[in-house]
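Researcher:
Attend to token order:
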Amino acid sequence: MKNIIKKILISILQNEAKLALKRHSPFVIAVVGSVGKTSTKDAVAAALSPALNVRKSKKSYNSDIGIPLTILGLNNPWSNPFQWILVLFRGLVEIFNKDFPEILVMEVGADHPGDISELSSWLKTDIIVATQFAKVPVHIENFPSREAVLQEKLSILKTLKPDGYIIANSDDEEFTEAFKDMNRKAEIYTYGLMPPAYALGSSEQFTFDENDRVNGFTFKIECESNVFPIKVKNVLGDQHKYPILAGFTVAKVLDINTVLVLDGLSTIKYEPGRMRIIEGVKDSTIIDDSYNSSPIATRRALEAFTRVPSTGKKIAILGEMLELGKYGEEEHKKMGGLAASSSDILVAVGKFARDTAEGALVTGMDESYILQFENAREAGKYVEHLIEKGDLVLIKGSQGTRMEKAVIELMAHPEDKEKLLARQEEEWSRR
């Protein structure tokens, strides 16, 4: 019965979304890839907002329900039937809204086969922004092979209009070349941290507060023989450079004044749990990357963790990377090895903790500096006793591991958790 009701809801929502698109003809931008979709969507919207009326996906609305909700500008009422009735009514009203946005920026995800390819039956896009495709993509256990995941991601090209553009991450040669091979007519612009790229990110420098704690970074965008300085606050990592570069590139393609673009990029509000810098207990610093995880995302987080200077210990608290299927054990061992190279203490959490620990041991980490726990809360409570002034703590794990619970145990001001952390809504509190 639940599945039948869900199908009916999706059908009504999609029909309302189709009618809204037909009536208002907005410019549609879709963001696709294995990692960084939400951050990229936010950066693209920020870059365009000073010049245009933009609507973006809320949070990670990237599914068969989330995409039509984004088009209609509505919230997900989850399992509340009365709220759903109200949402469907508001969807009808939105079709005739005179203030409908000029630009829609949506992330598009694929948890199962057909999730993206089915969009082409009713959604048409003007720009596709490709992030990166992982060697072991998230949700791979739901697909027959890695190639099947790649083809599902690439099926977004079926939605691209004949005069559309592709904005691709040139650091991911496989994904970029696949887009080129499947659509040789579309104009392609690239962004990345390695040349050649139309918009190239370079010259990273960390910034610090009055207590010498890292509080962000700066870097430069090199584009068409010009250089533009960018300052990023309260977050760390290449995973925030790529979205900014993507947003900048989309704005250049749309010929928006660069001054307005840079102003817009300076207003990005970074989502919780994505390499967010949070004040920790005992004058420590937490890098909260607890929103979700995958091999490529964990690798990026640990690489950033390696580069960040610290006056104290570096402690990596790593939860599970879920939905990897047959790749689970091996990928956790690899991440344990990376953690051993970037951390003084490794705290492994969940059912793959033993594999993560084994990877660190094989790499040469002393067994006395490797800890294992069943869940995030236990790990956080124990690590609280290890932390000292100046320590730097990275916390990462898939959504299902609820690693934000470890952050709560270690943050200096847990009363601010609802403002700073992922999954603090009432819906999550019941899980």
Summary: The CA atoms of residues 127 and 165 lie 5 Å apart. The chain has a mean pLDDT of 94. The two ends are 22 Å apart (CA to CA). The longest helix spans residues 2-24.
